[in-house]
Design brief:
about 210 residues; alpha/beta; eight-stranded mixed β-sheet; three-stranded mixed β-sheet; 4 helices; globular
Length: about 210
């Protein structure tokens, strides 16, 4: 789908390293002004990725390989049933990275709301969260990890739709020890597929601007 200000690419299931290479290629073109703002919406085969703030104790304790990347944040998991978005966007001057992260959060909050899942921000923790009830833990349903170079964004967000949440039991998600992880399917008690979520995310992409 191509709009006047944004090209949306939906390549399906893509190896993480291949998608990272494609991000870097698109980033160079957007930064050079030879292509419009572009977003990749896709899935990855199961993979752990570690941002620059990842600590040794956060990593999988079973020795699972981890891909170290240049985004912010700590360690996370990507895999089937999780919708991953990589917006390659030229930010307005003066560049305000925090404001951009807040826009990404708002987009994710709005998407979840369309499915009847109430989420919000948690102070000091990026992403979209289902707040605790009855003495339980806050549950992260969407994560954010970005980098900005030459005024253009890299990396992005991941929304848990219908993924295997047991993958998050093998490490400390985002380095946060006092919270849980959830998905749209887990919250609603029914399968919520990426095919169902994709068009809703596309409708809300304008929030990123």
């Amino acid at each position: 789908m191509t709009a006047s200000v944004l090209t949306v690419l939906r390549p399906g299931l893509v190896d993480y390293r291949d998608a990272w290479d494609e991000q870097k290629r698109l980033h160079e073109d957007v930064a050079d002004g030879t292509r419009p703002d572009t977003i990749l919406l896709l899935e990855h085969p199961s993979v752990f990725t570690a941002g620059k703030r990842t600590e040794p104790a956060d990593r999988p304790w079973d020795g699972t390989p981890v891909v170290d990347v240049d985004r912010g944040g700590k360690i996370t998991w990507h895999g089937p049933g999780q919708l991953v978005g990589y917006p390659i966007l030229k930010l307005p001057e003066p560049v305000d990275v925090v404001a951009y992260v807040r826009r990404v959060e708002q987009m994710l909050i709005d998407v979840c709301a369309e499915f009847g899942v109430a989420t919000e921000r948690v102070e000091g923790r990026s992403g979209a969260w289902v707040r605790a009830t009855d003495g339980g833990l806050d549950r992260k349903i969407a994560q954010i990890g970005i980098r900005v170079a030459r005024g253009v964004t890299l990396h992005g967000f991941a929304l848990n739709c219908d993924c295997d949440l047991s993958a998050f039991d093998r490490f400390i998600p985002c380095g946060i020890r006092d919270a849980g992880v959830t998905s749209l399917s887990a919250e609603l008690g029914r399968p919520v597929t990426i095919a169902e979520v994709m068009p809703v995310v596309e409708r809300h992409l304008t929030t990123l601007f």
